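re: the backbone from monday

yeah here it is again, tokenized this time
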């Protein structure tokens, strides 16, 4: 009898994958064992957790994957975008497939460079150049100009 192994990798994200395993692990294992799974194993790794499941029937994985408890658990992973990898075979070093490590944040998590704002436009009164003079009287003409 040949077993059909599947691996579910959950990576750390908004919270740890270990916390996710404590919350959803029992429901996943119960759903697997009561629905044709023959063996299972958890692996806790520095970057997350791996659940390995073995099914003897060809359609066992599809039947397991359609269960509401399984869909709910997989929808609740800590990183819903990049934190869930499901593949056939065993995870870790037991097969040719090596579990993927999470990608580091782009730009080392750096903030964007600050952009200096443009100076605000100011309008004010200024004396017209040169001042107008007539005899002993000096007249100044004021006008508007942008400073």
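seq for it, each position gets an aa:
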């Amino acid at each position: 009898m040949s077993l059909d192994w599947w691996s579910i990798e959950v990576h750390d994200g908004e919270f740890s994958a270990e916390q996710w395993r404590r919350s959803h692990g029992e429901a996943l294992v119960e759903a697997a064992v009561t629905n044709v799974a023959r063996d299972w194993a958890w692996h806790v790794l520095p970057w997350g957790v791996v659940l390995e499941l073995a099914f003897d029937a060809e359609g066992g994985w599809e039947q397991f994957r359609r269960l509401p408890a399984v869909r709910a658990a997989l929808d609740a992973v800590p990183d819903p975008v990049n934190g869930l990898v499901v593949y056939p075979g065993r995870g870790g070093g037991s097969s040719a497939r090596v579990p993927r490590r999470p990608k580091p944040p782009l730009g080392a998590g750096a903030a964007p460079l600050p952009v200096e704002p443009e100076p605000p436009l100011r309008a004010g009164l200024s004396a017209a150049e040169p001042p107008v003079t007539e005899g002993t009287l000096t007249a100044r003409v004021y006008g508007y100009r942008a400073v």
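Residues 12 and 46 are 9 Å apart (CA to CA). Residues 4-92 form a domain with the Alpha-Beta Plaits fold (CATH 3.30.70.100).
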